[in-house]
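Structural prep section.
Before we set up the soaks we want a predicted structure of the protein with adenosine-5'-diphosphate in place, mainly to decide which crystallisation condition to try first. Input record follows.
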Amino acid sequence: MLLVLLGAPGAGKGTQADILTDRKGLAHVSSGDLLRLHRQQKTELGQLAQSYMDRGDLVPDDLVIRMVLDKLSEETDGPGVVLDGFPRTAPQAEALDEALGGNEIDKVLHVKVPEDELVRRLSNRYICRGCSRPYTAESMGRPCEFCGGELYQREDDMPEAVRNRLQVYSAQTYPLIDYYKGKGKLVEVNGLQDVDAVTGDVLQALKD
Ligand code: ADP
Ligand code: ZN
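Run finished without errors. Recording the tokens verbatim:
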């Protein structure tokens, strides 16, 4: 099974992807997490990606496409993959289709959240360095309850970068909704509900 989670920054894609990993055994492939890992490990890709990411700009397509397609080619054993944060541009979506050949994407779930709520969530978001799970400001100073990792505010969750990411999303990623609608793959999910209700809708969409 190949699922794609589409949605603005802060829509809750990563949270739902983690839940799908627990419940369905799907491998969670997050382009953002892969890029942050490259940065931590100071690889060439990580160093190239750094300035784009901190400004909230997209990392160039050729770099991201290669990174994600390599990862996907390693994930062929399990029941499937949930892609989170990729594709984010038309060239990425086309490269993915091409790489899949006859094997198609099963569903593209668009997790929809209004912009004022996204800004509120992102500016109050703190992330575990170990496992990337999100927390809020109230948890700062305490370790992650899952892995004991340290919580920090991502550079790109600062206000200016947040505004830029939302603009980049509207301009570059939002058009993919029509692209997948045209292919009959798109399912809309209301991301403004609590986490469990969103999960319920996601699981329902997978059955339909
Ligand atoms: P969010 O969805 O909250 O913006 P991510 O962790 O998915 O966060 O992405 C963080 C940053 O990593 C993006 O702002 C961008 O710079 C880079 N990035 C992640 N995925 C892609 C992608 N598919 N194409 C280009 N850049 C990406
Ligand atoms: Zn953690």
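Observations: The two ends are 14 Å apart (CA to CA).
Flagged for discussion at group meeting.
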